[in-house]
């Protein structure tokens, strides 16, 4: 199984066009603002039945020069009312859907960038992000996944460059 395949039957992680159509409500609840209409959104859906798909998790990747930035991640807790308890427990036991959607994104976009960067101030998101391949940088809240070999000087150059953006 690759990270581009779902680890669960009836769960699908996929890129989508027009992400707000699927995630506006859960994004509004989490961030009190409209969901982004740029970048490369990924959504994780649960198939309740063949006529009912529930968005459970969202994250956004977007290109910035030679790297990809990641942010805006949110999980739809209310959507889990449709998920059977055995599947819900299995998802919790495997670090949750945020873990899986990040890993999917790293695999899906690996050829599009030199590294992945995110800012993270949430304790639980930090723990999960570290398990997916992100690493802390010397800058508070800035994390990185250097998924390709590169020199330490190149890593530092990219890190300093992204730090200059501020929180994203």
How would you describe this protein?
This protein has helices at residues 19-31, 85-93, 97-108, 123-132, 152-163, and strands at 11-15, 40-49, 52-64, 67-75, 116-119, 135-136, 142-145. By secondary structure, it is α+β, with helices and mostly antiparallel strands. The protein has a single domain (11-163), classed as Gcn5-related N-acetyltransferase (GNAT) (Aminopeptidase). Strands 1-2-3-4-5-7-6 form a seven-stranded mixed sheet, sandwiched between helices. It is globular and about 50 Å long. The model has no long low-confidence stretch (mean pLDDT 95).
The biggest beta sheet reads:
7 strands, mixed
- CATH class bucket: Alpha Beta
The largest beta-sheet arranges its strands as 1-2-3-4-5-7-6
Structure classification: alpha+beta
Instruction: Report low-confidence residues grouped into runs of 5 or more.
Output: none
Number of domains: 1
Oligomer: single chain
- Please bin the fraction of helical residues: 25-40%
Which of globular, elongated, flat, extended, rod-shaped describes the shape?
A: globular
The CATH topology, please?
Aminopeptidase
- The N- and C-terminal alpha carbons lie at a distance of 32 Å
Q: Tally of extended strands?
A: 7
Strand content: 25-35%
Give the radius of gyration. Answer: 16 Å
The secondary-structure element order is EHEEEHHEHEEH
Q: What's the CATH H-level superfamily name?
A: Gcn5-related N-acetyltransferase (GNAT)
Which architecture would the CATH scheme give at its second level? 3-Layer(aba) Sandwich
Overall pLDDT, averaged? 95
User: How many helices?
Assistant: 5
């Amino acid at each position: 199984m690759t990270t581009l395949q779902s680890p669960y039957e009836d769960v699908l992680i996929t890129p989508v066009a027009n992400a707000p159509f699927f995630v506006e409500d859960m994004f509004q609840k989490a961030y009190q603002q409209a969901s982004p209409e740029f970048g490369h959104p990924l959504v994780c859906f649960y198939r309740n039945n063949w006529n009912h798909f529930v968005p459970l998790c969202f994250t956004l990747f977007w290109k910035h020069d030679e790297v990809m930035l990641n942010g805006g991640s949110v999980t739809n807790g209310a959507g889990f009312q449709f998920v059977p308890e055995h599947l819900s427990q299995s998802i919790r036991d495997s670090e949750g859907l945020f873990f899986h959607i990040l890993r999917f994104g790293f695999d899906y976009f690996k050829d599009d960038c030199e590294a992945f960067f995110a800012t993270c101030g949430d304790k639980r998101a930090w723990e999960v992000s570290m398990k997916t391949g992100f690493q802390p940088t010397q800058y508070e809240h800035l994390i990185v996944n250097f998924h390709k070999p590169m020199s330490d000087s190149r890593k530092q150059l990219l890190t300093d460059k992204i730090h200059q953006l501020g929180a994203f």
